[in-house]
Specification:
The protein is α/β, with parallel strands linked by helices and 296 residues long. It has helices spanning 29-33, 52-61, 74-79, 86-96, 119-127, 143-146, 148-159, 194-202, 227-233, 235-246, 263-277; strands at residues 4-7, 39-42, 67-71, 103-109, 135-138, 177-178, 180-182, 218-222, 252-256. It comes from Actinocrinis puniceicyclus.
Length: 296
Amino acid sequence: MKLHVGCAMWTHAAWSGRHLPHPLAPRERLRAYAGWCNAVEGNTTFYATPAPETVRSWAEQTGPDFRFVLKLPRTITHERRLGDVAGPLRDFLSVIEPLGPRAHALWIQLPASFTPGDLDTLAGFLRRLPTQYTYAVEVRHRAFFEDERWRTRLEQVLGQVGGPGGAGGPGGSGGAEWIAFDTTVLFATPPSSEAEREAWSKKPRLPRRTRALTGHPVVRYIGRDDPRLTVAGWQPWLGTVSAWLREGRSPTFFIHTPDNANALMLARRFHEEVRKRVPELEPLAEPVPAEQPTLF
């Protein structure tokens, strides 16, 4: 039984010398991060398909159990809006092949302008995807959260996706997951820092959703710069994630804060708090200290 936790990136200036050794060569940064967390969001792939040697380096720096949730390039999701994308999709899938099982889920983040009227396009796109990967879809249009008809229809579209494990649900990996993107804590009270004000201007204000559709739920939880508020805000998730684990699901939980200064420690703390509720959960490995001990 494992819970995978992680952050939105594996390198951050606020972590250098504090949590991660400094200096670190670029090809060692992911390895150091992987000593703290066992998953990471692949946000950089949204902006461009990485070079093959870059992906090979990612594989070399991580163990086979490490999880990347990789965002499909924006050319596919935002510019071409899932239409006429065979070429860029083929290029992307070819490049990430060296990751093997580390490519835990391919993340289809759709723009807020993607409406219920576009669901047939999504269904057609998902039907054409190779079945050796699992998929996770993120929608931001409020109709999917506020109208039962469209929520049900989206779940039906996601449930029709094939997968390496057959049918979806606790025991299988078939079906595409609906990513839970929780910004409720961020918007609970007015922002108190420049980073929080920027997050308010960019993040969607959506209701919390805790329903898992498959055996591999993915949560993106956005907290606050004050760690106490972040911890207080994730309390409802502790019970949800614990229940998923007991049902045989394999969740991945990502911690964001507007400045991300404490995200590494918070991700590990979330894992520890779930483990208090589910003692059989396998612990995370101990991270390497930022300051390497000397012999003298």
